[in-house]
Amino acid sequence: MADEQFKTSSSMRPLVGIVMGSDSDLPVMKAAAEILKDFEIAFELTVVSAHRTPLRMVDYAKTAKERGLKIIIAGAGGAAHLPGMIAAITTLPVIGVPVKSSNSIDGWDSVLSILQMPNGVPVATVALNAAKNAGILAGQILATANEELSEKIQQYKNELQQTVLDKVEKLAGDGWNNTYDKL
Ligand code: RP5
Predict the structure, then answer these.
(1) Ligand 1: which residue has its CA nearest to atom 6?
(2) Ligand 1 nearest-atom number relative to CA 110
(3) What order of strands is seen across the sheet that includes strand 124-125?
């Protein structure tokens, strides 16, 4: 049964599905998993290749909603059709991560393959290798219906703000033209 092959070991029902075209994408894509873990959002992670396992991709996308997923993060490199094809099959929001694969033309192949979707089939494309942003965006979408999560993400943004304010203070104190050592 299609559902069975995507079963996760986690006790919590995953809300976010992270898929990638190859395990060679994992060093980039694990940043999405890490930030979701930080926000305590249950997720599943697996390899689904649009070109090498097209039927698995169809099964994954077709069963995603009924399995309880709310958002899919899909990363791929090169002729990166995975996010777009998943978005073609499911009504769940799909966040696409262009992965700069080793034989890519500076990553433009991945970016344009994921970004240039036709009208009616959107993929929310993040920057090249920006899997962390994909995880944060997934969290922000889920947070529209979850106040506790919204507060966690607000806290994260507050910390980001504080790191910049610390830099402002340090720069003002040290001066720009001495041996400024960035924070
Ligand atoms: C894509 O081809 C994958 O997403 C990966 O980025 C790239 C290379 O895959 P491997 O040849 O390393 O498996 O489908």
Answers:
(1) 77
(2) 6
(3) 43-47, 16-20, 71-77, 94-99, 124-125
Buried b (16+ CB within 10 A) or exposed e, 77-89: bbebbbbbbbbbb
What residues are in contact with ligand 1 under a 6 Å CB criterion? 20-22, 24-25, 49, 76-78, 99, 101
Tell me what the mean pLDDT of segment 45-56 comes to: 98
Residue nearest to atom 9 of ligand 1 (CA): 22
Query: Is residue 181 very low, low, confident or very high in pLDDT (cuts 50, 70, 90)?
Result: confident
pTM higher than 0.85 = yes
Nearest CA to ligand 1 atom 5: 77
